[in-house]
Amino acid sequence: MAAPEPKRGAPVPGRCAYFVERKKRFCKMIPAPGRRFCGEHGQQEQENDRKRIPCPLDPKHTVYEDQLQKHLKKCNSREKPKPVYFVQDINAGLKDVAEIPDKTVSTSICSNAQSLHNMLQFII
Length: 124
Ligand SMILES: [Zn+2]
Ligand SMILES: [Zn+2]
Prior knowledge:
The chain is built from 4 helices and 4 strands. The chain starts with 18 loop residues before the first strand and ends with a helix. A two-stranded antiparallel ribbon has the order 1-2. Strands 3-4 form a two-stranded antiparallel ribbon. Among the domains are: 8-49, no CATH class; 85-123. The longest helix has 22 residues, at 102-123. It is mostly helical and 124 residues long. One zinc ion binds at residues 16, 18, 27, 29, 37-38, 40-41.
């Protein structure tokens, strides 16, 4: 004997379950199959159903739980180096640098300095 709530009643089955406060009735749009809300109110459904959780990288801000994976990839607080593959990248980089002969580097610096010197002389 569950009497319908006097104020709101129940949404019409098969119709959008969004209560339009302004009209004091439920939305009459027909939602897509399997959805409780019509396209217009689907957004609100998502907002309501979504849970915000503190970001594991920085609890000072929160993220939608279902967006966490996405967020972790672009979170501003992810400064800690990622395990394994990040370290490998760093190693590879160092190797590349180490393989450049010192001579080449110093020579090019020298010639750069030389040409700069020449240029300065020219200007002065
Ligand atoms: Zn609706
Ligand atoms: Zn974050």
